[in-house]
Amino acid sequence: MALSLFGTGRRSNVFDPFSLDIWDPFQGIGSLVNSSSTAGDTSAFAQTRIDWKETPEAHIFKADLPGLKKEEVKVELEEGNVLQISGERSREQEEKNDKWHRVERSSGKFLRRFRLPDNAKVDQVRAAMENGVLTVTVPKAEEQKPEVKSIDISGA
Question: Percent of the chain having pLDDT more than 70?
Answer without folding.
Answer: 70
